[in-house]
Write a structure and sequence with these properties.
5-stranded antiparallel beta sheet, about 5% helix, single chain, Jelly Rolls, about 140 residues, about 45% strand, mainly beta, globular
């Protein structure tokens, strides 16, 4: 079983009277940075990337991350809570969805192509992990964690 998702906080923080710096080490170059806002109760992703790693830093808010490794047919769905300041890294072929518990802002860091017109064709393929029937089960999980 491989890790579905690695969650980490910034490392080697530096703080002084001006504020704070948190550093996040990334394992590969980045050629696209997306700033994404999400409303409380909304669902994002419900897809997987055949070749790309999914990297997100949550700037504001909180969400339930739902993942499933598509390379292991016996693998079960995993859930975890992602909080402000967390860096989430999901490897290729791990389906993932985000259920936002609060209005949220995150930065998506990409190495490779992510053109919207190629969604479902090249870089990102739909895979429904969360729907209206099970969304509230995941929210309940978060409230009891």
């Amino acid at each position: 079983m491989r890790d579905h998702e690695k969650i980490s906080q910034g490392e080697k923080p530096f703080e002084d009277s001006r504020g704070r710096i948190d550093n996040y080490e990334l394992t590969e170059p980045i050629n696209l940075v997306g700033l994404i806002t999400s409303k409380k109760g909304s669902v994002r992703a419900n897809h997987y990337h055949p070749q790309q790693e999914q990297k997100c830093i949550l700037i504001e808010g909180e969400y339930v991350s739902v993942t499933k490794d598509l390379l292991d047919k016996n693998e079960e769905v995993q859930t975890r809570i992602v909080k402000k300041g967390d860096l989430s890294v999901i490897p290729p072929t791990v389906a993932h969805a985000m259920i936002f518990l609060e209005d949220s802002i995150f930065i998506n860091l990409v190495n490779g192509e992510r053109e919207h017109e190629n969604y479902g064709v090249t870089h990102t393929l739909p895979y429904e992990l969360v729907n209206n029937d099970n969304k509230y089960k995941f929210i309940e999980y978060a409230q009891n964690s």
